[in-house]
Amino acid sequence: MSARKLGMVAYRVLWLVFIGLITADLVFGLSAGPWWWNFAPVLLAYAVLLLVNRRGGAPDTPRAAREPVEVAPPVTGRWSALNSPADGTPSHGVHSYGQTFAIDILAEPEPGARPAFRWLWPLARRPQDFPAFGAPILAVADATVVRAADGQRDHLSRTSLLGLLYLLLVEGSVRDISGVRRLLGNHLVLDLGNGTHAAYAHLQRGSLTVREGDRVRAGQVLARCGNSGNSSEPHLHFQLMDGPDPDAARGVPFTWQGIGVPRNGDIFQAPPAVTGRA
């Protein structure tokens, strides 16, 4: 087990210890010391996470920095970029879960088609209200499926102030402690060869067309875009990594054929897929 994997396991265990201490103190009146001592595991957990993130850009064993890997786009049609590595890394604020160079993309078939953020009302929307929901997700290269997780529900959006606060302060923390599967929701990981793996997160429940061990061709439909896991609205979270396990992997930079890496807010047009293209 890599040091990175051990760090993520320790982070979650320390959070569970904290929850146990608080429960024992508040419910059963049991305490191992002064009240503030209960928060020691949380401080240690964040210290571990900080260490993991500081090491995020460096491998466990020294090797040359990787150049961006060119792959086909994972979608077709008109989309916009959010949390793009073109605007800075780590693109999502942390190196953990192999997401140093991750990107989020949202379907924008035409201006105004995607419901906008609302401060107060509606608090949430159905995933079907967003054009990304159900959009086909494509293999970015010829590859082997090494992870295929399905079965998590597509929840309501978190596109109001209260919804977003709930996601950031409550739901996101619970999912983080619960493990990478709860963060990514329904997801796929493909082995592209040469030490590169592609991860697709927040897929629609029941939409996966492949299983672990399947060989896929570039442009092949793998699943549909959904709103499962740690997601504010239907979108695709895409990243390349140097291993199949997001807990242990490090991010690998990518570039999409004919597109490059769109910046935050950029609208891009992905061409129709050509199955079998290398």
From TrEMBL:
InterPro entries reported for this sequence: Cell_wall_metabolism_enzyme, Dup_hybrid_motif, M23ase_b-sheet_dom
Keyword match Oxidoreductase: no
Keywords noted in UniProt: Membrane, Transmembrane, Transmembrane helix
Record-linked Gene3D superfamilies: Glucose Permease (Domain IIA)
Protein origin, superkingdom: Bacteria
Molecular function via GO: metalloendopeptidase activity
Domain M23ase beta-sheet core, first and last residues per copy: 172-242
TM region positions: 9-29
CDD domains xrefs: M23_peptidase (cd12797)
Protein name as it appears in the record: Peptidase M23
Species for this entry: Streptomyces variegatus
